[in-house]
Amino acid sequence: MGVAALLGVGLPLVDARVIGGLPAKVTAFLFSGGPEAARTVLSVIAGSLITVTSLTFSLTVVTLQLASSQYSPRLLRTFAQDRFVHVTLALLLSTFTYSVTVLRTVRASLDDQTAFVPQLSVTVAYLLALASVVGLVVFLAHLARQIRVESLLHSVHAEAVETMRRCTDAKEQPAASTPVTPVTGTVSLCAASSGFLTSVDEAALLGAAVDAGAVVVLDRLPGDSLIAGTPIAVAWPLAGTATLDRRAVTVLSERVADAVRTGFERTAAQDMAFGLRQIVDVAVKALSPGINDPTTAVHALSHASALLCEAAGRDLGPLLLRDGSGRVRVVLRRPDLPALIDLAVSQPRRYGAADPEVMGRLFTLLREVAWSTHRTEHRAALNEQLVRLCATVERQAYDDAERSRMDALARSVREAVDERWPPSDS
Length: 426
Description:
Layout: H1 2-18, H2 24-27, H3 35-70, H4 76-80, H5 83-103, H6 119-146, H7 149-167, E1 187-190, E2 195-200, H8 202-212, E3 214-218, E4 225-226, E5 231-237, H9 246-259, E6 260-263, H10 274-286, H11 294-312, E7 319-322, E8 328-332, H12 337-351, H13 356-372, H14 376-394, H15 400-420
Parallel strand pairs: 3-8
Antiparallel strand pairs: 1-5, 2-4, 2-6, 3-5, 7-8
Helix pairs in contact: 1-5, 3-5, 3-6, 5-6, 7-10, 7-11, 8-9, 10-11, 10-12, 11-12, 11-13, 12-13, 12-14, 13-14, 13-15, 14-15
Organism: Planomonospora parontospora subsp. parontospora
Protein name: DUF2254 domain-containing protein
Keywords: Membrane, Transmembrane, Transmembrane helix
């Protein structure tokens, strides 16, 4: 709006300088009315645009309310970050601001002043009004598309995959690492502020550990809730060095607190589980009695399965930061695949237990994940979830056909697990 106001002040000055000097071929396309006509055009544009802007704000608020009540409150950030909404509102408000600013320069002919009609400026206002109308139509189409659960899940899925690829490496096997074991003199480091852990400055954390001659293990994950004054990390002196004195611990604690950033909400900056959390929230919300939409829950579980399969092919082990000599100085935890599987399966299993379609999709999810990994440590997690799913199915009042289908799906999961982990590898 600031640019629009400056343009509304500056363009009439240009009009005053070039008026009458433009060729006829150019002036033929410019506004040709008098002062009253110019005032009418600018007043209509300004009045219409402020009404349309109010309508746009109202539609956006209704969309946010619907997304919050029907899908998940955590999806509101998807709309808040939508650049299309930002651009549309900026265009409407800028056109209103520009028209009102230009309106003040239109003068009628009086005894002590000559008439002045900023033809170029009024023409620009007309063009901005046309652009605003087109923007409003496109915005309505965009809003109708964005509010669909398919579009929301796609946006969350894409953001989650981007976060996962940015924070991990694609490897068939976990990276080999030397176990980090604490020595004597272990001290706890506390959080400086409360909130969700949003990101960690790895370079700052490594620098703090090197300067203090210590090894630091951060045992909180991005997305965890931190409470000021409670431990979030442990540190101990590097092997072969003296114990950490009180001053060194104080400085290290301050620098670690500065490197650990908190916020009032979870973000996708380094939180690999946040996208999966949002997708599971949509599934659980769809299974609530007030919504009762198992089809949406099954759709959300398909996205959850795709994210788990993506995670299965990546190195989710702890991130080890080394100094110039190659010694491990910082250990950062990351969510492992068993934890992600439990996040994706546990709540939908509990709230969708009575629906065979939801339970069937959970069996299929486990089978798909089993086919996406052959790491031995993942077998126990898949078998545990399979046992819990089967126990839930046994407690339900399914008919014979539904129970037979569940048994067949359970067998397919076992076969997938056995195929990926032959007995000789157990």
